[in-house]
Amino acid sequence: MTSTPKDQAASDQTKLNPGDQAEPGTPGTGENVCPECKGSGRVGAAACQTCGGTGTIIEGVGGA
Fold first, then answer.
1. Alpha-carbon distance 28 to 20, whole Å?
2. How do the domains of the chain map onto residue ranges?
3. CB–CB of 17/51 below 8 Å?
4. 18, 34, 44 from 23: Cα distances, Å
5. How confident is the model at residue 5 (pLDDT cuts 50, 70, 90)?
6. What is the C-alpha to C-alpha distance for residues 33 and 54, in angstroms, rounded to an integer?
7. pLDDT on residue 56
8. Could you give the C-alpha distances from 14 to 11, 33, 56, 64, in angstroms and in order?
9. Main-chain dihedrals φ then ψ at residue 25, nearest 5 degrees
10. Quick count: other Cβ atoms within 10 Å of Cβ 48?
11. How far apart are CA 13 and CA 28, in angstroms?
12. With b meaning 16 or more CB within 10 Å and e meaning fewer, what string describes 3-39?
């Protein structure tokens, strides 16, 4: 099966960054400020490798 541009766009949206623990929208997770770049999306002159330059990561939400 070949991928279409629509399929490619969907897979690009769910691409995980190294700092993500799960895909966006996964139950029990939420968005948080990236601990590496402190939300700026940059480390020095380069894009943050942990969050992929977004400034946020997806991580598990604590529970009881």
1. 13
2. 29-64
3. yes
4. 11, 15, 27
5. low
6. 9
7. 97
8. 5, 18, 14, 28
9. 90, -5
10. 23
11. 19
12. eeeeeeeeeeeeeebebbeeeeeeeebeebebebbeb
pLDDT in tens, 15-29: 899 999 999 999 999
Q: Please state, in angstroms and as integers, the Cα–Cα distance from residue 62 to each residue in 19, 27, 37, 40, 51, following that order.
A: 17, 12, 22, 24, 20
Q: How far is CA 2 from the centre of its chain?
A: 26
8-64 pLDDT tens trace = 445 556 789 999 999 999 999 999 999 999 999 999 999 999 999 999 999 999 865
The confidence score (pLDDT) of residue 6 equals 54
Tokens of 62: 């604590």
Handedness of CA 8, 10, 41, 52 (dihedral sign): negative
Structure tokens at 41: 């999306």
